[in-house]
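Handout, page 2. Input:
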Amino acid sequence: MLPPSGELSTREWLETNGIGGFACSTIAGINTRRYHGLLTTSDRWLLLSKVEETLIVDGVRYELSANFYPGAVHPEGYRYLTDFRLDPYPRFRFEAGGVVLEKSVRMVPGVDAVVVEYATSQSGVSLEVRPLVAFRGYHELTHANSDFNAALEAGEGCVSLRPYAGLPPLWFRQNGAQLSKAGQWYFNFEYPIERERGFDFHEDLFCPFVLTWALEPGKPAMLSASTQEHFDEAPRSSSSPFVITSGGKRTIVAGYPWFTDWGRDTMIALPGLTLTAGRYDDARAILRTWAAHVDQGMLPNRLPAEFNSVDASLWFFEAVRFYIAATGDSEFVRSELLDKLREIVDWHVRGTRFGIHMDTDGLLIAGDSETQLTWMDARVGGVPVTPRGGKPVEVEALWFNALSVLDELTGGSYSELAARAGATYSEAFWNPASGCLYDVIDGSNKDASLRPNQVIALSLGYCAIAPDRARSILGVVEKELLTPYGLRTLAPSDPRYCGIYEGPAEHRDSVYHQGTVWPWLIGPYVAAQKRFNGSAGDVLDPLLSYMRDRGFGQIPEIFDGDAPHHPRGCFAQAWSVGEVLRAERL
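Output:
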């Protein structure tokens, strides 16, 4: 069942290959982002942008594709689209000239390859397909140029194209079509989402050839595009599209279409994406991957070795705690992770990068006004928008939790440190004037901004906040920050609040954590409500509905703080999906 026609170009689908490569676009087949394409490789080259199809019935041509051009939509193939579904990969049904045509798009597991198939139950019809290639980095755009090498090389049952020496070749295979060389540019494709984001939004694409099939019932037409001349199709797994194998190691992609693997996001998303689904091998492998990169007591913020986060290392402890609770497998933790956990705490006690160290009161000090070490990490002109140097509320909660997890694993070796941190934390951060917690304490300065970070303190395995205060905090957060799609990052009553996330990059970065709704925060909120109030009610319903219907199994990175809370940012975010799945099981 198709959604209303106005949503055909705004609802997005995603198909992945398990190693970081992906395909994505809209139901209408209109690429509205520079990141939309049929083959983005695991090392993030967007090679094949799309294919243009023409169905020919009794000599009449029906254009099935659609594109935005300046001031126009052409062709208007979405008018022939009668159904779209994920089953388990994208499938489209067109009806034109009395003929029903089924199209499917699937990535090949473990290979940078995409396969597009077309099937019909009627004979006597023809299909023309024109591949449109980009050959660029996925953050970039292609424009017609004389350096493009359009030569086609013949292989065994295939042809290849390699326009630029520094990029991989693209091998095309097909079954029984007539191939006619084209060699022409298509100009001025328009990407409205990039225009909204303040970026270049026009692109030219190259058509190397045209394929023509005489379609027959029971004999689907097939076109594949791959960076390998030969490949075998392995069985598809039921793993999350975010869980991938990269360089032989298991990890989590933070979001599609532009994020890679981030330490903080991985640790937060891991329980919902792996443990709640019983994918314990994935969880072990992911924890093992990241543990191997610990350096000076810090987990990388991004692989292979970017260290600029105070909380990723501490979220690692919470992921380990979840793993033990779900599996009972403390032996794996003790044999493979315990030394790393000790190393992290010991470095934090004596001091590591960015001035991160334990203060005399048992809490952590991290960063300054020039750094952005917490998850609220946006910068404009190199300056942090929400500088949270000192003692951020969720960092101290994570520190107490980490000490408590390690204390339990070691039979009481860290009990004194944990007790001191918990006692100091529970009193120092309480703000009686607002009935909730300060967001940051930096010396004598106490930031009373009403933000959702304090909810994290109430949701962790070990919580130092008294139940009566916790219920007060939740009441304030529910009133000021809760929306149908998660928690706002700043209360609307704050003069810095901005409820719409749009415009050029500089403006969007300036409001990224100033009221924008983050769905992943619903996980800590639900966990805290169930712990202290016994129930979270039906707060998950809108996000579950979004994931099931509008999102085709995905939840975006953010929503506007103001109603109607339009989705923004990445359309598929790992911790958004993971935390909703985890909260659903609580």
